[in-house]
Design a protein that fits this description.
By secondary structure, this protein is of the alpha/beta class. It contains eight helices and 28 strands. The chain folds into four domains: about 100 residues, Immunoglobulin-like (Sandwich); about 70 residues, Immunoglobulins (Immunoglobulin-like, Sandwich), CATH 2.60.40; about 70 residues, Immunoglobulins (Immunoglobulin-like); about 190 residues, Glycoside hydrolase/deacetylase (TIM Barrel). Helix 2 runs parallel beside helix 8. The radius of gyration is 50 Å and the shape is rod-shaped. It binds zinc ion. The site of zinc ion (ZN) has 5 residues, from strand 21.
């Protein structure tokens, strides 16, 4: 019986041994990689093949390795490890990743922080992306559009990521604008109707705001004076813009029929002005003097002319074209000096002026547009400038008193005749022609007058 049990155990043992041997005999060999299954190598660095080993029972087997790694080129390279066992191929692979580490750049055109109107959609201003290895990557940029920022991302072929953002600040920072149609200074004659010439208002965020403009102020054309109209508008962000229009109610110019306005520029002078005043007094003719700076010892001539009822008007302090037409500031500084000097002598602030060279001068063209600007500003400041429509030629070109007489009398016409003459030193041609001109005018139905604010304005076409 005992023998039988030992025999049975032995049989079982043999049986297990056979099964285990068969089990291991049928196991395929396994390839075990040395090192990781995935290896990353930096661009241009050497790749070291670590190889693999076989885990098997029985005889030794030889592993073959296939595949190359080009470390000068970014990419994923497969290395194949294999062997043949009982007619079967056993294999495994390793991935070698060749990578560089520099991130690509993204450069945004336009601002990185953009002020925008609330509800405005950003208009892309452009961008570029570049990578040290891949070159231009602009086409690969992806934009994630969020409300308060756009995020620009890109990845190079080594999967180095770059992200930059463009931020948006939604806030209306600009005040609306009001554009007045017509002049900012309007002259209305007394008792005539003021006509509003209109306006437009525009806001960068709100658009057209014209019908939201409030106009305040009134113009009473029955009463002479200067009136202000205020145009106010605000945008939805509360920015307020105001514009002003000046309306001057002035006496209506008196239509003069046949009137001669004698004007004398560039005085006073010691040799000519006293005699001019004497003749005017004897002939009971009022004239207009456009004054330049002079020696104070001649102030008495200005005072006398003023007391005789002539108009004392501003010509220029320096009469230096280069200086006065260099800038608006220079012009008005020159004007101020002359104005103050005349006011000191006569006690009256002069309002009538004449541009040196006339408003049509071209000598100021070294400063383009200056005459256009000055004519407007001068009017805005309450001055009235006069040019002339009758030239005497006495500033050059005549060689006798008779020529001066001829030049003037041959050009007289119905209506307003503003005659340009000069009373500067030694201008005897004009002095000697003066009485004859006055006689001609009187004999031919003309009246003589001095220029005032109600004189119809004679002005040239501005040429600069
Ligand atoms: Zn002059």
């Amino acid at each position: 019986m005992k023998k039988y049990v030992i025999y049975k155990i032995f049989i079982i043992f043999i049986y297990i041994c056979v099964i285990m041997t068969l089990f291991f005999w049928n196991q395929s060999p396994k390839i075990i990689l040395n090192g990781e299954r995935e290896i990353t190598v930096l661009l241009n660095e050497p790749y070291q093949e670590l190889g693999a080993k076989v885990k098997t029972v029985g005889q030794k087997q030889h592993i073959k390795i296939e595949g190359t790694v080009d470390t000068q080129k970014v990419g994923d390279y497969k290395i194949r490890y294999f062997l043949t066992d009982k007619g079967k191929t056993i294999e495994t692979t390793r991935t070698v990743k060749v990578r560089e580490t520099e991130k690509p750049t993204i450069i945004l055109s336009g601002n990185m922080r953009v002020n925008m109107c609330p509800n405005q959609e950003y208009q892309e201003q452009g961008y570029e992306s570049y990578d040290n290895y891949d070159g231009k990557l602009t086409d690969k940029v992806i934009i994630h559009k969020l409300k308060d920022k756009w995020i620009y991302t890109v990845e190079d072929s080594s999967h180095n990521p770059t992200a930059i953002a463009r931020e948006f600040i939604y806030e209306d920072i600009e005040a609306p604008s009001i554009t007045l149609q017509g002049s900012s200074v309007v002259i209305v004659y007394q008792n005539e109707t003021y006509q509003e010439s209109g306006y437009q208002a525009y806001d960068n965020c709100d658009g057209d705001l014209t019908n939201q403009v409030k106009v305040s102020g009134t113009v009473n054309t029955a009463v002479l004076g200067t009136y202000e109209l205020k145009y106010t508008v605000s945008d939805t962000s509360g920015h307020i813009t105001e514009e002003t229009r000046i309306v001057r109610v002035t006496p209506k110019p008196i239509e003069t029929g046949k009137t001669i306005y004698l004007t004398f520029d560039d005085g006073p002078s010691r040799t000519i002005t006293p005699s001019v005043l004497q003749i005017l007094k004897e002939e009971n003719v009022k004239a207009t003097f456009f004054i330049i700076n002079h020696d104070d010892s001649l102030n008495y001539l200005i005072r006398q002319a003023h007391e005789d009822g002539h108009t004392i008007a501003i010509h220029s302090y320096t009469h230096n074209y280069r200086q006065i037409y260099a800038s608006e500031e220079a012009f008005f500084e020159d004007l101020r000096l002359m104005s103050e000097k005349l006011e000191e002598i006569t006690g009256v602030k002069p309002t009538i002026t004449r541009f040196p060279g006339g408003s049509s001068n071209t000598v100021s063209r070294f400063n383009p547009g200056i005459m256009t600007r000055l004519a407007k500003e001068l009017t805005n400041k309450g001055y009235i400038y006069f040019d002339w429509n009758i030239g005497s030629g006495d500033a050059g070109g005549v060689s006798s008193a008779y020529e001066v007489y001829q030049n003037v009398t041959s050009s007289l016409h119905n209506g307003t005749n503003v005659v340009l003459m000069h009373d500067y030193e030694s201008n005897y041609y004009t002095l000697n022609a003066l009485r004859d001109i006055i006689h001609y005018g009187k004999n031919n139905g003309y009246t003589f007058s001095n220029i005032t604010e109600t004189t119809p304005q004679i002005k040239h076409r501005i040429a600069n």
